[in-house]
Amino acid sequence: MLLFTGILLGLIVGTIRKGSIFRLNSLKWLWIVFVPFIVSLLIKYYPEIPLLFKAGVTTVSYLCVLIFVFANRKYLVPSIILGLGTLSNYLVIAVNGFRMPISVKALSIYPSMTAEAVLSQRADYFVATDGARLLFLGDVIYFPVKIFEGFLSIGDVFLALGMFILIVQVMGKNCFVEKKPPETSSDREI
Which of 65, 86, 128, 132 is spaced 20 to 30 A from 141 at the CA atom? Predict the structure, then answer.
């Protein structure tokens, strides 16, 4: 949800800055970022998927995002932020059996939630009641705003911020890039 918020805010800010949404066509391999969304639906609702297949599908999904980031590396700042978000989310998922750990605090905030209910509704998540590897990279940040209420990871924050910056930068005035001053006649003589 936070990623979509970053995209939406990027489009709004890009438009306010008199940018053009059509400039987003200049992004290379844009279509490839939709692969992870399609793949996540498969993993989300089918807990019986064998771990090896799930690991392969998840890895390909994250590689698609990294391919997009690499293909658009000329946008340095958002590429670094997107890359960090992608790698941190993949790392925590990979070391936890290809499932994202959720903070135990979720059980106190959502009293009707149980660890079993999470697994039955989302096969790609688990409540870290018995701990988890690299839990600090998991969904441990509580976001209390009602419409978006829930838990998210530092990787999610990086992905949303990176997409926001990328969209604003590509749409318009390159507000996150240092601009070079125009050449003067004295510069050309040197």
Answer: 65
Spell 12-36 as b/e; 16+ CB within 10 A means b: ebbeeeebeeeebeebeeeeebebb
Do the Cβ atoms of 128 and 103 come closer than 8 Å? yes
In this model, does residue 77 exceed pLDDT 80? yes
Residue 57 near residue 124 (C-beta atoms within 8 A): no
The verdict on residue 155 lying in a domain is yes
- The predicted model scores a pTM of 0.81
6 CA to centre of own chain: 9
On whether residue 93 sits in a domain, the answer given is yes
